[in-house]
Each structure stands twice: as C-alpha cells, then as structure tokens.
Amino acid sequence: MKNNKPNRREFLQAGISGLTALSLMNTTQASESNFVEPHAELLETTIFDLQAKMKSGELTAKKLVEMYSARIKEVDPKVNSVLEINPDALAIAEKLDKERKKGKIRSQLHGIPVLIKDNIDTADKMKTTAGSLALMDAPTPKEDAFLVKQLREAGAVILGKTNLSEWANFRSTKSISGWSGRGGQTNNPYVLDKNPCGSSAGTGAAISANLAAVGVGTETNGSIICPSVRNGLVGIKPTLGLVSRSGVIPIAHTQDTAGPMARTVTDAAILLGVLVGADKNDPITADSKKGLKDYTKFLDANGLKGARIGVACSMVDGVVRSSFDTTRPLGKLTEPYLQLLKDAGATLIDVTLPITNLGDNQTIVLQYEFKTDLNKYLAKRKSQYKTLADLIKFNDANKDKELPKFGQEIFIASQERGELTDKTYTDALQLIKSTMQNGINSAIEKNNLDAIVSPTGGTWGMSAIAGYPHITIPAGFIDGIPAGLAFFGKAFTEPTLIKFAYAFEQKTKKREAPKYLPTLG
Fold first, then answer.
1. Strand-strand pairing, 451-455 and 319-322
2. Average pLDDT, integer, range 350-358
3. 73 has a pLDDT exceeding 60
4. Which residues neighbour 45 within 8 Å (Cβ) at sequence distance 6 or greater?
5. Which of 107, 130, 398, 488 could form a disulfide with 249 if both were Cys (CB 3.0 to 4.6 A apart)?
6. Among 246, 282, 259, which residue's Cα sits nearest to residue 146?
7. What's the distance, Cα to Cα, between the start and end of the chain in Å?
8. Which domains, from first to last, does the chain contain?
9. What is the largest CA-CA distance in the chain?
10. Which of 107, 223, 323, 454 is flagged as catalytic?
11. Which of 221, 212, 215, 235 is nearest to 169 (CA)?
12. Per-residue confidence (pLDDT) for residue 513, from 0 to 100
C-alpha cells in the first residue's frame, strides 16, 4: 500500500497555492533571528472581532480563508494539527461575501473559518478517515454529518480537517494521544515535545495555535475536555443528545458527542448554539429541544453572584479529599480560585462524588458498542473494509504504517464482543449509568446546587459516562502546559455552566497564546 503521509505536506502546499495572502508573506525566507509571527493580527481574534471587521469592510470571508491558510502553512509544520485544507473553502467564502453585500447574514458564524475533526463526515472533496489509512480510499460520505449541515447553513466556512488520535483513541491500550497513521503525531503548541492529549488533539492544537477561529471536537470520555485543557482552550462537552451523532465515526452511542473548542467562552457559546439541533437520523436529539440556539444570552460577568456550587470531593481510603488537593500541583494552582468564586458571590459546599472504580464495566460497554456502531457506519460508507474484523486484518497487513508505535488490542477485544442484547453488556451499562447519573444528581439535589466545580481532571469521566455537560476554562500553567478549571452538572444545564465559566474567565483571563518557536521540533 502506498504511504499517504508525505502527501499531507504536498496537500498543504497545493491547498494554498495561488492565495493572495501568500503574496503578503516573506517569513518563509526570513531567518529565525528576525522571525515575524505570520498574520499576527489573527492571534486571539474572536468571532465578534472578525464579524466587526467584515461588517466594516476591513476583512472578507475570502481574505480570512487566505490568511488562516497561509498561517497554517507557516506554523503547522511544527504543530502538525491540520490534515488538509478544504479546496472549496475560497469558493464558499466568496459566496458568503456576496450574500453579505446583499445584506444577508446567516448567523454570527457567517464567513467564519472553522476546523473540524477528521472523524466527522463531509460530502465534499475532503476525506473522512478517523486518521486511519484504511479509509483513505473509501467513498466520500453521501451526505454531510448533521452538525456539518448546521455549520454550513449558519454560514461557517469549513476550512479543513484536523488530525486526531486514530479511531478516536480506541484502538490500543498503549496508544499515543494525537497520533494517527494518516497524519502522524500532533504536537502541543506550548511545548512541542509534550502530549496534546486526545483524541481531539488536532482540533485542540490548531485552535490554540490560532489556525482558525473555532473548532469542533468529539468526545466519548475526555476527548474534548482533555485536549482543550492541555492546549489552553475552552471546551464544552455537551449533554448527550444535544448535538447529533449522525455522520460522526462512532465509538459508543451512549457516550459519543461532538462539541465546541474555542479560545473564549463567548466563541464556544456561539458555536454550541449552531451545533444544537434535532436530527431525524439521530432520535436521541429529540431532547435537543431542551437546548437553545443562542447561548450568548448567558454571558454574564456577574454570573457567579448568588450561585450555589459544589466543590468536588472523593472518598479515598475512608477519608474525604477535595479535588483541590494542595499537595498536588494542579490543586495548588487552582485552590486559590475557590476564594475567587466566593468573592464573586458564590456559596461553596463540599460534595462527595462517586469517583469510584467501576471495574471492567465501562470497558465492556465501550467495546460492545464500538463493534456494533462502527460496523453500522462502515456499511453505510461502503468502504473496502466493511467491518471491524476487516480493519484488524488491514492493520496487520500494513504494520509498518499503522502499527509502528502501538498495537490494536482494543480492536481485537471489541471484535470478540457479542450483541447489545447480551446480559453482560446490559448489566454493565445499567451499572455505570446509574452510578454516575445518580451520584451527580444526588449531590446537586441534596445540596440545592447549581453546578459542581473541580480542577479539570478526573471528573470529566463522570460527566462522560453520565451523558452530562462539562466545561473547562484556562486557569494557568504547570511546567509550561496549560491547566484548567471545570464546571459540570445535570443534563441540559449548559446555560448555567456557560454563565459560571464566563464569569470566571472574565475575572481571571488566564488564556495565553502559545509562542511559535521555529527553532524547536
């Protein structure tokens, strides 16, 4: 089989050849001593900033595509986060510019470049592979993922696809976050030889490096929240059912969701509102009616006043310990924020959560659902590789390209699972769901809480299993790598979480752009 990885660089070159933005750039010839940040005006720019400039005529959607594409060409060889740029992006942007001239503005995302993870279907000239070489030659999906339709209808420009931990980090027990056979290793833009976390590593690194305005990631257990915190972003893992799963390469339908990854709470809230919607092909999204199309109304700098917030604690060896344990670096960094929350008007109550060992039950659920859900997806794609068993054989036949760093133990274990009617599966599912949902619900209801707060860390697993929302906000750095603070709560409490996150963000403003260091990597 032909090795496709070198084509990534060829693609990036071809994808931005002829763009007028390149005529503005001489940095490729500049020495490192006088290096100038490419398109520095894009650094930390927000959706509101870009809309204001397009409204005034200072910028156009086409110009933005050119600028971000040029920045990808210059910056991303070090970060390795973008797999491909959409060859239709300029044409899409031009159409949107014409609409703007006629007075038609579809939404706050009109003309805004967005990057999406390479496990989200696009019925265009880009590939959808989950990072695997097995799907490089698969037929183009017949239609966009529902969330992509939402983005296009809102006027967003799908700028390109980002790298990920292959198969969303569900192939091996020894996998490396941010590595895929298709894209290689994505690097953390703050410290290039550090882990960007997975599986939405490419989206996290790209948005942090200011390679697009906002991005979309997906999560089964931590794959939006972890790369968001490690890359200094705001990440929202929505309630299960708020965002459609159709057209997203699956792991497990009882936990999978897509969600926003952005540099500010405002941008994440804008993107979330676009992603929400009821999809006839994903019945669970009937509950999305409990969601909203505009979350920006909850952006209140005084939003913590009067709040009742639980401080996440757990029982360890019979002793209740706060998640803000000052004997650990993360707790030491974030513990002072508890006083900040109090000063902002919040009442804090310690709550003990079921951060417990579920044994093999979560693994059992994910493996059963992965085999069933992936086989259904592959059948629709009409790929040469139609089942999980086929993918296992493909990887074995292409070990030098697909298995050079780690194996496929999870694939093999999942293939051995049976049907979703098996008692082993149904018992495990009932146990993990009831444990986490009841644990969060009881803590909140018993103490009349609005949400729970913790350093961004182990609690994301609780929210993921429960199917409940979780949001992380930048909270500083530990050894040069970003850390975060998280708010989470019961199902469909995104408005409350966004309100608290925004108030915290406005009082701290700990997001810092990574510095592009051409001498590293």
1. unpaired
2. 82
3. yes
4. 210, 213
5. 130
6. 246
7. 29
8. 7-29+47-298 (3.90.1300.10), 308-358+429-498 (no CATH), 361-393+405-420 (no CATH)
9. 67
10. 223
11. 221
12. 96
Hey, what amino acid is at 242? L
What confidence category does residue 149 fall into, taking pLDDT thresholds of 50, 70 and 90? very high
User: Could you tell me the pLDDT band of residue 35, with boundaries at 50, 70 and 90?
Assistant: low
199 given a catalytic annotation: yes
User: What is d(CA 455, CA 312) in angstroms, rounded to the nearest whole number?
Assistant: 9
Answer yes or no: are the C-beta atoms of 235 and 227 closer than 8 Å. yes
Told to judge if 223 belongs to the known catalytic residues of this protein, a careful annotator would answer yes
What stretch of H or E contains 314?
A: strand 308-316
Helix 388-397 to helix 361-381 angle (10° resolution) is: 90
Region for residue 487 given its phi and psi (left: phi exceeds 0; alpha: psi -120 to 50; beta: otherwise): beta
Q: Distance between CA atoms of 269 and 509, rounded to whole angstroms?
A: 17
Taking only the tens place, the pLDDT of each residue in 475-487 is 999 999 999 999 9
Packing angle between helix 61-79 and helix 47-56, nearest 10 degrees? 140
Query: Among the options 62, 63, 117, 499, which is catalytic?
Result: 117
Provide the whole-model pTM. Answer: 0.93
Element housing 116 (H / E)? strand 113-117
3-state secondary structure of 206: helix
- 10, pLDDT greater than 70: no
User: Are 466 and 452 contacting, i.e. CB atoms less than 8 angstroms apart?
Assistant: no
Q: Which of 219, 223, 161, 170 is nearest to 388 (CA)?
A: 170
Candidates 307, 312, 299; CA nearest to 342 is 307
C-alpha–C-alpha distance, residues 459 and 214, integer Å? 25
Residue pair 112/154 in contact by the 8 Å Cβ criterion: no
Contact, 373 vs 253, CB < 8 A?
Answer: yes
Name the strand (E) or helix (H) holding 85.
strand 82-85
Asked if 117 is an active-site residue, the reply is yes
Q: What percent of the chain has pLDDT over 70?
A: 91
Tens of pLDDT, residues 164-197? 999 999 999 999 999 999 999 999 999 999 999 9
Q: Inform me whether the pLDDT recorded for 55 exceeds 70.
A: yes
Any residues with CB less than 8 A from the CB of 381 and at least 6 apart, and which? 135, 138, 139, 141
**Which of the following is catalytic: 132, 165, 180, 199?**
199
- Whole-number Å distance between alpha carbons of 234 and 228: 6
pLDDT of 147 above 90:
yes
Q: pLDDT, tens digit, for every residue of 197-213?
A: 999 999 999 999 999 99
Tell whether the model's pLDDT for residue 135 goes beyond 50. Answer: yes
Q: Is the dihedral of CA 50, 55, 59, 61 positive or negative?
A: positive
Measured CA to CA, the distance from residue 181 to residue 402 in angstroms comes to 5
Residues near 79 by Cβ (< 8 Å), separated by ≥ 6?
186, 187, 189, 192, 205, 206, 209, 211
CA distance 52 to 25: 24
